[in-house]
Structures are given as C-alpha cells and as structure tokens.
Amino acid sequence: MEKLLEQLKGQLIVSCQAYPGESLYGSHIMTAMANAAKDGGAAAIRANSPQDVAAIKEGCGLPVIGIWKRNYVGSDVYITPSLSDAEALFAVGADIVAVDATGRVRPNGETLEALVSGVRKQPGRLLMADVSTLEEGIAAEALGFDLISTTLSGYTPYSPQSEAPDFRLLTELAAAVQVPVIAEGRIQDPEQAAEALRAGAFAVVVGTVITRPHTVTGHFVRAIRGAESAGNVR
Ligand SMILES: CC(=O)N[C@H](C=O)[C@@H](O)[C@H](O)[C@H](O)COP(=O)(O)O
C-alpha cells in the first residue's frame, strides 16, 4: 500500500475512459491508450469498468485506479455507487478503487459508511474519495478513505461550476486533511498540472485533453468556426 502511494507521489495519472457509441469504445483501445500514456511517462491509469480495468492490468502493467460508472434509478451517484461495484473492481485487480464520496443518496439505501466498512473487510485495499467540496473531503478522511480527489467539483449542483480546474478546493483540501489529495478535473495543459502540484496535490489525474480526442477536436472546430464567423479568416 505504502509502496504504491510512494510510486504515485508527484506523478501524472492518465484517465483512459470511453463510452458505448464512441469511436474509441472498447477495452483493447483503452489498453492501447494506457500503453501510450505509459510510453509518455504516466505512473498510473484511471479506468472505468471491470472489463477495462482487467484489460489494462494485463496489457499495460501500470497501477490502475478503477471506477465503475453506473446509473441506478433514484440516485445521482454514478461513480462506483455501491459496495458490490467496488468489489467487482478489486476482484479484477484494481490497485485503488475510487468512489463517489458525496453525501448524496446512494442506490438501494446503502450508505457511504457501509461501503467503506465493506471494503475494509479485506486488508490492504486502497480507497479513493471523489468529492466536490471541502466538507465532503473532510468527511471522507474521517470515514477512513486513503486518498481524496477533486474529481466531482463542478459536477454536483452545489459545487462551483467552472471551466477551469478547482484549485481553490485543491488548496483547501490539502491544508485540511492528512491523506494525499489528488487534483482531477478539467486540467487542460502541462502548466496547470504543474500548478496543481505546487498547490498541494499529491498527484494529478488528466483525462479528456489526453485521451478523448473527439472532445478536444470539438474544441478546435468550435474555435475555428468562431473565427470564421467573426470574419477573421482569409
Ligand atoms: C466528473 C466525472 O465523471 N469525471 C470522470 C471521472 O472519472 C471522468 O469523466 C473524467 O474524465 C476524469 O475525472 C478526468 O477529468 P478530465 O477529463 O476533466 O481531465
């Protein structure tokens, strides 16, 4: 456990996720993405679903932070909502499992406390709390999470909605908790990743700008169309 955290300290973790219907969907493609990230110097991969975690563990070899995005009726929690989802990720070899650690209602009346104590029945497991506010991060540390990530800032209705990374939350969390704090969410370029470390992040997770080329392509296309309609194109 300690050794893995030491390996991640000050490093880049690349999130490799694609969804059904997208051109890059498929565990073999996500494994290729993970290997490309490894070639570039990434220290770990964040991946979605037991299939992708298993494939990346086997085909890439870097440590994997597993999540399982699932929609349940009656709950807005979608990142590893239940204990059984977390168990499925550990079962295929996830080194760390990240779960939504907001205070929102979870599926089937399960509580976050119950999820954490269920995971703790087996020793040596690392749990990451994806949070959207300082209060959620402090509560997550009290519940015994091993790491806290700013993942959900901007994605709960009550957290600041911004196109930029939430450096304020990162700084406040880093000052308030003892466990490692991960900077994640909307980091756009290498300078922002470096800034996150200076602001107190233990490690940095970057996804979209590296592994979702269709989204990044869309940003370029919209900017070009904007220039065109403003009459700046020769
Ligand atoms: C809010 C949510 O569901 N975040 C997800 C969590 O795994 C992913 O969709 C993000 O890509 C990931 O957090 C990395 O962030 P970014 O792609 O912005 O670098």
TrEMBL record:
Uppermost EC category: isomerase
GO MF, one annotated term: N-acylglucosamine-6-phosphate 2-epimerase activity
Keyword Cell wall biogenesis/degradation: no
One of the GO BP terms on file: N-acetylmannosamine catabolic process
InterPro entries in the record: Aldolase_TIM (IPR013785), NanE (IPR007260), RibuloseP-bd_barrel (IPR011060)
Catalytic activity: an N-acyl-D-glucosamine 6-phosphate = an N-acyl-D-mannosamine 6-phosphate
GO cellular component: cytosol
Family matches, as SUPFAM superfamilies: Ribulose-phoshate binding barrel
Sorted UniProt keywords: Carbohydrate metabolism, Isomerase
Protein family: Belongs to the NanE family.
Function summary: Converts N-acetylmannosamine-6-phosphate (ManNAc-6-P) to N-acetylglucosamine-6-phosphate (GlcNAc-6-P).
Record PANTHER family: N-ACETYLMANNOSAMINE-6-PHOSPHATE 2-EPIMERASE-RELATED (PTHR36204:SF1)
Protein name, per record: Putative N-acetylmannosamine-6-phosphate 2-epimerase
Species name: Fontibacillus phaseoli
Gene name for this UniProt entry: nanE
